[in-house]
Amino acid sequence: MRPQLPFAPACERNKVPILAQLLNILPGTGALLEIGSGTGQHAVYMAPRFPHMTWQPTDLEAELEGLRARLEAEGCHQIQSPVPLDVAVGPWPEQLFEAAFSANTAHIMGWPEVCAMFGGIGGCLIAGGVFCLYGPFNRGGGFTAPSNAAFDADLRARDPRMGLRDVEQLARLAECHQMRLDEELAMPANNFLLVFVREAP
Ligand SMILES: C[S@@+](CC[C@H](N)C(=O)[O-])C[C@H]1O[C@@H](n2cnc3c(N)ncnc32)[C@H](O)[C@@H]1O
Predict the structure, then answer these.
(1) How many CB atoms lie within 10 A of CB 95?
(2) Average pLDDT, the chain
């Protein structure tokens, strides 16, 4: 019998609108680095839609077993073997990437890990490369919806290091790592897709 694969209902809901945006944003060729791939649902759904790109999934070591199981069951030839990556610890890949993608990670990581994620991505994107960060975010220091306020309170009750991040704070963080916030796309269910572009050195 096929082992049960890890499954996140949110991925099934958000993968279609995220892909619709990525089709307009990603370069179409080159390599993409995914941070916090989780169940691998985004990788297996999206990578085949970019037949001339390779997709490098990563996550914490503890998440890799389930991720590997999904990729073995549903992966395609462009998806590379997943590698362990804790953004705060590394090691970051030595290769350069044309794009990076991460979904629903910035509110799960503590702020020091979010800083490490931006630092690592800034270091391994080519000039002109894009970093697409999906999730719920605050704007102007406030929640964009009551549901996001409730979600934030729930996260902080579970672990005070977690919580929704401010778009403006992320934009300033990106600038410290030679990236600028290029687009802030409103997505269903009070989420955003933030698009950062790596500046030339
Ligand atoms: C809410 S899940 C999102 C997973 C997937 N991207 C999705 O959209 O379903 C958050 C992910 O961030 C990963 N994560 C948390 N801390 C991390 C860190 N320090 N470095 C890398 N990944 C981390 C978790 O292991 C988990 O897979």
Answers:
(1) 10
(2) 96
- Judge whether 55 lies within some domain: yes
- Total structural domains within the chain: 1
State the residue range of the domain holding 56: 9-100+117-136+166-198
Ligand 1, atom 13: closest residue by C-alpha: 36
Q: What is the pLDDT of residues 52-80, one digit of tens each?
A: 999 999 999 999 999 999 999 999 999 99
Atom of ligand 1 nearest to the CA of 34: 6
The alpha carbon of 181 and the centre of ligand 1 are apart by a number of angstroms equal to: 22
Kindly tell me if the per-residue pLDDT of 1 is higher than 80.
Answer: no
Amino acid at 71: L
Query: CATH number of the domain that 95 lies in?
Result: 3.40.50.150
Give the Å distance between the CA of 108 and the centre of ligand 1: 7
Site to substitute for ligand 1 among 15, 56, 60, most atoms within 8 A of C-beta? 60
Residues in the chain: 201
Ligand 1 pocket, Cβ-based, cut-off 6 angstroms: 8, 11, 35-39, 42, 59-60, 63, 85-88, 103-105, 108-109, 113
Q: What does each C-alpha distance from 103 to 77, 121, 199 come to in angstroms?
A: 22, 14, 22
- Kind and range of the H or E run holding 143: none
In angstroms, the CA 72 to CA 68 distance is: 6
Is 107 part of a structural domain of the chain?
A: no
**Would 106 be classed as within a structural domain?**
no
